[in-house]
Amino acid sequence: MIRLPYNGPTTKEKSIKAISLRKLFFTLLLFCSITIIYMYIRPAYSAVYKPPTPTENKKSHEKEENSDIFQAFHDCFLPKLETITESYRKFWYEFANVTKDCDNLKEYNSLDIQAAKNKDEVKYVVFPKNNNEPLTMVTLGIGRDIRAELRLKAMYPNIAFYGADPGVAVNKDLYESTLGGKFYNYAVSGQNGIHISKIFLERNFKVDATEHIRADYFFRKILNKNRIDILWIDIEQNEYGILEQIHQNGKLDQVGVKICQMNVEFHKDVFGNSDAEMQKFYDFVFKVLEDKKYILLKPKHATYMDIIYIRAFIVNVADSECTDLYIK
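^ Methyltransferase FkbM domain-containing protein, sequence as received from the core. Prediction below:
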């Protein structure tokens, strides 16, 4: 057999071998990189992840119970609302009557709801499970009447009171000297600057331009509070800007403020005839149902000088900062 002389690998063979070596090098480099990254992040992940503690399991169970309260509210409220959604006007004028039967749900037995009456209406409060718990109470729109606040103070003395009203006369003296709270001369709403307010005088209202301050700024920066236990709002149609802030991921969530319970008056036609407020109220109610954060109770229509408005009691059943206080 004739042997041909061997002249070494051809240029093509050399090229293939070089490519193979480069592939092997990059494969080894990738493997080493992944190994190093894994070894680096594994301790951090292990430090972060921990199995749920008994306390955390308890909180999870409590959250399920709280969602039962919301679900009962939702299942009662929504079918009734669906009968009045053909127009904003019908929704406004029939809301209280069609939903009032939802106040008697057995799931609400875990809430200790008490009443405090002022001159012409009743406010509602859910008292905490622990009678020694210090509470923060804010009144937006004092209206020269603190009877309900005084009754609340008599029932539960451990409350710090803060009130805001664009009218100083009478309100400051009532809130500070009589009640022992702190008064702020602001119209708290959903915006800053000079805007229209309706101020209660001795026997009637006066419309005037006053200094407004946003609710999120007032609660977080001026009061320096991250939890408002009791909030009463009666601010003559400026309430809607505040209510836009209370929803999930709204302004109040963004600045870290929780509102535990509210008494709210929803107004219309305060600054002239308008259907806009009826739509705002409609949108607010359905956003509450969507958020799964609050329940609405004690709906009531009231009348002032032939203008019909709506009162409601609103309770937070989602944020543990609130529910741990008062849900049994």
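The mean pLDDT is 84.
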